[in-house]
Recover the amino acids of this structure.
């Protein structure tokens, strides 16, 4: 069954969709949308480094994503104008990454697949990494759920309850880096943030509790991955962008439902 | 034995000294109010007690197994976060439904369980926060300007609720307040803060201290006089009823 490239693609999309969406809820609640974008864009630099050093793309992307996320985390709340700083860092890292890739011979043609994903080329090995990463993220989110939620509401409430909100922030940062790294193959660095944010934002009008929102977001994210892939197959469109398009239609749909319910 | 004992506390925030050499002890069951102008370090002191900022010097000793209930000054819940009151009270620990009902009733917020936090009125929101703080039956209830954004009847009702909590649970109460007439009537002790402890003692002592008058001016004297008048009147009224 895994010999079929479409089956592998579907499994890859499903794994990333399921892990990204609940994490995306925190990204939305904490207003970190741009943070996700910046981390994702920076990973192209990681891809370049991985190609240059002849190491795994996942590892390179993961390391740079983590460094970027940690840097941004550390600078948060120190009086910097965050949107400006993130803009500078995200696009600088993207540009440096693109320039760095051009120095490496023979990979210039591959660049598109890192920018927009290459889900149809997912190998069995990739699947193991993607599902391993997704499982790690889902497990971490579930384990820290209550603490993460409290820290999201108010860092001071977290302190008063006896745990350190900075540690929870670190867990989120780590999860974000993992998701970004494993999602490169699926949607590419330019569209990763969409997989985080769009399903979460689509789930909001339908949810009454944080858990409800996370579960609905995971369902929508997984569904968008499968449906988008199917659409790409039928209409011969690029797979990554098709997945995001389906997610976007989902957003329009649920928000319409939300409006009609009022 | 004091619940919290603070000695020589100095806190620096980003290079500026927010608190300097603060001493404070809170005894079981007493109501201590912190007053002071904006930027005088009131919230910083509270954040130091709950462990959200670490002291640059001095120490904060909490009694063994001390249970603290904390009501933050402001809690803005993002509209994108769906959260019922029941779910909010279950953070960060899951609770027995009966416990939730009891805490909500105690805080005067009975029946709000399934409402969305974002849809509550200002007074209901503060009561939901209070209910959450009461879940552990705290030895010390800390409130940072609990009546921010409430109108006068609303804040009076909330203070009565807090007083009721102290009576039934026996919790000590440490609060920051701007409402000087309430402070003066309801507190056992008042700490007047301005980066350091300017003066402290019973409301009468603080109100007549020159440091306090220097900070709050003569308007305070008027407020206090007004309060005293009310207070006398109240007693007369009671006497009348009994007769």
């Amino acid at each position: 069954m895994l010999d079929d490239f479409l089956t592998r693609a579907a499994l890859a999309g499903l794994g990333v969709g399921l892990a990204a969406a609940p994490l995306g809820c925190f990204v939305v609640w904490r207003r970190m949308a741009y943070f996700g974008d910046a981390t994702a864009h920076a990973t192209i630099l990681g891809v370049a480094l991985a190609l240059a050093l002849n190491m795994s793309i996942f590892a390179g992307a993961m390391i740079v994503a983590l460094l970027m996320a940690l840097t941004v985390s550390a600078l948060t709340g120190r009086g910097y104008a965050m949107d400006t700083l993130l803009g500078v860092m995200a696009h600088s890292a993207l540009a440096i990454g693109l320039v760095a890739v051009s120095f490496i011979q023979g990979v210039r043609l591959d660049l598109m697949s890192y920018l927009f994903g290459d889900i149809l080329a997912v190998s069995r090995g990739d699947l193991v990494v993607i599902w391993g990463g997704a499982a790690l993220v889902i497990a971490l989110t579930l384990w820290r759920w209550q603490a993460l939620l409290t820290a999201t509401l108010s860092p001071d409430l977290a302190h008063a309850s006896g745990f350190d909100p900075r540690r929870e922030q670190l867990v989120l940062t780590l999860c974000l880096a993992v998701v970004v790294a494993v999602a490169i193959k699926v949607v590419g660095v330019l569209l990763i943030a969409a997989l985080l944010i769009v399903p979460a934002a689509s789930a909001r009008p339908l949810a009454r509790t944080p858990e409800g929102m996370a579960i609905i977001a995971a369902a929508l994210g997984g569904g968008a991955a499968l449906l988008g892939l199917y659409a790409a197959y039928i209409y011969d469109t690029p797979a990554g962008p098709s997945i995001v398009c389906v997610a976007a239609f989902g957003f329009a749909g649920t928000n319409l439902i939300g409006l009609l319910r009022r | 034995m004091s619940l919290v004992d603070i000695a020589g506390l100095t806190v620096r925030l980003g290079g500026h000294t927010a608190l300097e050499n603060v001493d404070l002890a809170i005894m079981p069951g007493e109501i201590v109010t912190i007053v002071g102008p904006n930027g005088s370090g009131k919230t910083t002191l509270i954040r130091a007690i709950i462990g959200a900022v670490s002291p640059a010097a001095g120490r904060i000793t909490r009694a063994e197994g001390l249970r603290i209930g904390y009501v933050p000054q402001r809690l803005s819940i993002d509209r994108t976060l769906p959260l019922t009151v029941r779910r909010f009270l279950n953070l960060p620990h899951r609770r027995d439904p009966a416990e939730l009902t009891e805490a909500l009733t105690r805080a005067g917020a009975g029946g709000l369980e399934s409402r969305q936090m974002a849809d509550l009125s200002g007074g209901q929101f503060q009561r939901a926060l209070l209910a959450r703080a009461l879940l552990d039956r705290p030895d010390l209830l800390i409130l940072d300007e609990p009546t921010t954004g409430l109108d006068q009847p609303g804040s009076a009702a909330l203070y009565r609720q807090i007083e009721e909590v102290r009576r039934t649970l026996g919790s000590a109460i440490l609060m920051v307040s701007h409402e000087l007439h309430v402070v003066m009537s309801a507190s056992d002790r008042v700490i007047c803060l301005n980066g350091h402890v300017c003066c402290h003692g019973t409301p009468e002592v603080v109100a007549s201290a020159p440091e306090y008058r220097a900070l709050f001016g003569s308007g305070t004297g008027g407020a206090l006089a007004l309060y005293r008048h009310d207070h006398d009147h109240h007693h007369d009224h009671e006497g009348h009823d009994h007769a």
